[in-house]
Amino acid sequence: MLIAAARFLRKDNHLVKKFPFFPLLVTTTESINKTKPIMQKITVAKGDGIGPEIMDATLSILKAANARIEWDEIEIGEQLYLSGNTSGIDKKAWDKIVGNQVFLKAPITTPQGGGYKSLNVTMRKTLGLYANIRPCKSFHPFVATKHPEMDVVIIRENEEDLYAGIEHRQTEEVVQCLKLISRPGCEKIIRYAFEYARLYKRKKVSCFVKDNIMKMTDGLFHTIFKEIAVEYPDIETDNWIIDIGAARLADTPEMFDVIVTANLYGDVISDIAAQITGSVGLAGSANIGQKCAMFEAIHGSAPPIAGQNVANPSGLLRAAVMMLSHIGQQDVAEIVKNAWACTIEEGIHTADIYKENVSRQLVGTREFAQAVIARIDKQPSIIPVADYEKDVQLLLPVYARKTPAKKVLKGVDVFVDWKGGEVEELASSLQRLNNGIELTMITNRGVKVWPEGFNETFCTDHWRCRYEIPSERAAEKGYIPDLLRKAISENIDVIKTENLYEFDGVKGFSLGQGQ
Prior knowledge:
The protein is of the alpha/beta class. Helix content is 29%, strand content 23%. The protein has 13 helices and 23 strands. A 10-stranded mixed sheet has the order 4-3-5-14-13-6-7-12-10-11, sandwiched between helices. A 6-stranded antiparallel sheet has the order 20-19-21-18-22-23, with helices on both faces. It has a 3-stranded mixed sheet with strand order 2-1-17. A hairpin with a 2-residue loop joins strand 19 and strand 20. Helix 1 runs parallel beside helix 11 (365-374). The protein starts with 6 loop residues before the first strand and ends in an 8-residue tail after the last strand.
């Protein structure tokens, strides 16, 4: 008899069975009592600050619960940064992570300044971990909260948006950060959210965007949400502008079930949601890709309390529970989660959630872990008992590229560093560059200042100068280098250009504010 779990991928509306990355248990009925269970090899990083303490506590609980795991430990984070490694990770560590494909990570410290890149962001993007899942549930009355019915899962796109980290100082006064939103990125995360909702019997998926302002980037996310939603008629949907959505989440989280959103918004609202459940220290997260997965607490490394045996290991422990479920050890996940729930119910709390007349005993990191271990094989009385469906995997989406659109060049935005006087003077110089495409607009920080601008508009030294073809025909690409050569002769300091395209007759560029 072959005992195995299988992973399924959705492709072209068919289910394609693929074997998972975790080892398969192969045995027979005759030898079942003689065969040792296959151990899952994972990678562990103890991180910085409170990381080593909460990781040791978590691993001790997993070991006591007989989790079928072994681990390779790697060093990442602050010490590597300070030794001159600007990425915070070396090749040997990458090899371990990629080889094992399951990574349990404690918080790390990224030194401020100095050009250090966030290792968390680097890992998510390098490993293709496009989906960040953050369950935020209240544990009333044992953990103080104003929202006892709250049970929200935030699913955050993990690879793009402003977290692409593409920034430039373009003039003396202006720096730029590029917000990149792609159709593949939107489709993958939105479909993941609907599949998650269906698998875990959630009733509603809400989309959070800011497409009243960012009509193209956030507009694309919202458009794809609506396209995919029609494929899931059994799931209710709604959409929210991020500001009022976040306000309602903070005030009335009970109205939400699953929220799907872009990277930056998801980062912000998931911390808000975790905090209003009672403590950020209780929240774990999963980062899921097609091949690899990373599990971590959502809080930081908290250097001020490092080494004091006061940190709450619950966030990392709950992330480890998600890991156990992911690798097919739902039985162990249930044991650990129920033991943790019993500890919380009995009022054995660390300082971050300790409250007079609710908590019974104030404990440190190690003592909390020992209390969880002492309650293994027990079940909570009030907090819902963990009961994971066995041998079930999420239907992970596979992106299929669309038929290419007809792409037509319609002009170019030329960005200029100019510290002159009146904008009419700049426009006069720029009009001398007309060469078949013509200057039609100048904006400053997105606001139209020419033609027919307002003297009241404050302007910096960073100007967007739009040249467009004055007819329905396409622009010739030769126009652009010719225009730039003329700019040099006119002593116009061009700092960058952006081509203006139409796709199947639809403008692929925004209007200026005030047009």
